[in-house]
């Protein structure tokens, strides 16, 4: 008896395990049971059910035409402030990153040797002025004596030459004074332009020289600021034609190329095309009031070259491409999608300008192309945004379901 149970227990366990896992294997893809279930679901759904789509109406609008590019931000003006004289740097009068005005004193250099040179030039001039005054008096005496032949005319002429020589010396002394005074003024280093200072390259107490290449600090004008960008040479004629009709606006865009961070105007079109890249450089100026643009940074820009007036516009997503060219699915009043060939005049990320093939207010499909075909029935959401009502299951399927439910209940 125990031997019989030892044989029967494993067999019963195998049978129970098979009963549990059989439905799993029968329902695997590719099995007859799975195919029958998929076929039944397909019949329940119906091959003729409308395809859900989203639509948009063709409309009339003004469409701007932009040329896009990537530019480099540059200061409107930039100056490396250098000392014009040699000497010890006594005082730095600016903060790094400070906004300065033209003429503001940025630093002071030891003025003592240059003040001494100025004083020497002034003394030299005073000495020569005294000699000139004495020479003029002698000339007056020699002139009167020469009239009475008390002295020779040669002596009078010699004295006249001495006076002229001293007058020339006075003018030379004045030039030396002006030079010394200018050199002394260079001991005060001033800002040559309005702008913002950078990081200084030298500290107080150091000896500065006029030959220093790095200078004291760099001052950059960032309000306004410039952006230099390139466009293909094929667009040059279009830009020049538009520019003759008026100033062309330029927008600087954020990193996502969506929102304008500043708006400016085209300033310069370069006078030559780069033969290596086939592009031409353009320069635009921006007010940069919010300091959104910074020198040296890359920025996306777009140049407005034209505005298409009162044209037929549809969403770009509605335009499809086929072997015979662009087309759209037009939804008829009976909610049937019909293929319509169109001529696209201009297209951007959001809108497509349709030159031919579409009428105002016609509905075009924008989403739901996966199962869409010509003359296919579609379902469009209601105007309030609610989803379309799902189709009722066919009578045969409902009867079968009810009978199945009744049979189950009877059991």
Question: What does this protein look like?
Answer:
With 411 residues, the chain is of the alpha+beta class. It has 3 domains: 51-65 and 311-379, Beta Barrel (conserved putative lor/sdh protein from methanococcus maripaludis s2 fold), CATH 2.40.420.20; 67-76 and 217-308, Efflux pump adaptor protein, beta barrel domain (Elongation Factor Tu (Ef-tu), domain 3, Beta Barrel); 82-200. It is 32% helix and 36% strand. The chain contains 6 helices and 21 strands. It has helices at 2-26, 32-45, 112-147, 153-185, 236-243, 395-410, and strands at 51-52, 54-57, 59-81, 87-92, 99-100, 105-109, 188-190, 195-197, 207-208, 217-232, 249-253, 260-274, 279-286, 298-315, 320-322, 325-331, 336-341, 343-347, 351-356, 363-367, 376-379. The strands form 3 sheets. Strands 1, 2, 15, 16, 17, 20 and 21 form a 7-stranded mixed sheet that branches. Strand 15 (320-322) and strand 16 (325-331) form a beta hairpin. Helix 3 (112-147) runs antiparallel to helix 4 (153-185). The longest helix has 36 residues, at 112-147. Residues 22-45 and 392-411 have low confidence and may be disordered.
């Amino acid at each position: 008896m125990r031997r019989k149970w030892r044989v029967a227990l494993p067999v019963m366990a195998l049978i129970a395990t098979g009963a549990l896992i059989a439905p799993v294997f029968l329902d695997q893809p590719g099995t007859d049971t799975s195919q029958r279930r998929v076929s039944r679901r397909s019949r329940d759904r119906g091959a003729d059910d409308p395809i859900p789509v989203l639509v948009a109406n063709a409309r009339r609008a003004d469409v701007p035409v932009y040329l896009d590019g990537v530019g480099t931000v540059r200061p409107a003006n930039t100056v490396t402030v250098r000392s014009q004289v040699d000497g010890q740097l006594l005082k730095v009068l600016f903060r790094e990153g400070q906004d300065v005005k033209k003429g503001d004193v940025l630093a002071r250099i030891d003025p003592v040797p240059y003040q001494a040179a100025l004083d020497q030039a002034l003394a030299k001039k005073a000495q020569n002025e005294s000699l000139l005054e004495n020479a003029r008096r002698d000339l007056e005496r020699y002139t009167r004596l020469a009239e009475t032949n008390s002295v020779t005319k040669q002596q009078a002429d010699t004295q006249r030459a001495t006076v002229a020589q001293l007058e020339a010396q006075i003018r030379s002394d004045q030039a030396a004074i002006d030079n010394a005074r200018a050199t002394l003024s260079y001991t005060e280093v001033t800002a040559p332009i309005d702008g913002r200072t950078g990081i200084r390259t030298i500290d107080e107490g150091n000896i500065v020289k006029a030959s220093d290449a790095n200078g004291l600090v760099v001052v950059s004008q960032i309000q306004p600021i410039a952006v230099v960008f390139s466009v293909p040479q094929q667009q040059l004629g279009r830009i020049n034609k538009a520019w003759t009709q008026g100033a062309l606006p330029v927008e600087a865009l954020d990193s996502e190329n969506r929102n304008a961070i500043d708006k400016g105007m085209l300033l310069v079109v370069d006078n030559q095309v780069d033969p290596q890249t086939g592009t031409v450089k353009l320069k635009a100026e921006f007010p940069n009031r919010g300091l959104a643009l910074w020198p040296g940074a890359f920025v996306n820009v777009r140049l407005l070259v034209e505005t298409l007036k009162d044209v037929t516009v549809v969403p770009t997503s509605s335009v499809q491409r086929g072997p015979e060219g662009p087309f759209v699915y037009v939804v008829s009043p009976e909610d049937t999608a019909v293929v319509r060939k169109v001529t696209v005049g201009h297209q951007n990320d959001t809108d497509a300008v349709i030159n031919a093939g579409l009428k105002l207010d016609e509905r075009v499909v924008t989403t739901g192309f996966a199962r869409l075909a010509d003359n296919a029935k579609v379902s469009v959401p209601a105007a309030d945004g609610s989803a379309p009502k799902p189709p009722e299951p066919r009578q045969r399927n409902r009867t079968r379901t009810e009978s199945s439910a009744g049979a189950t209940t009877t059991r």
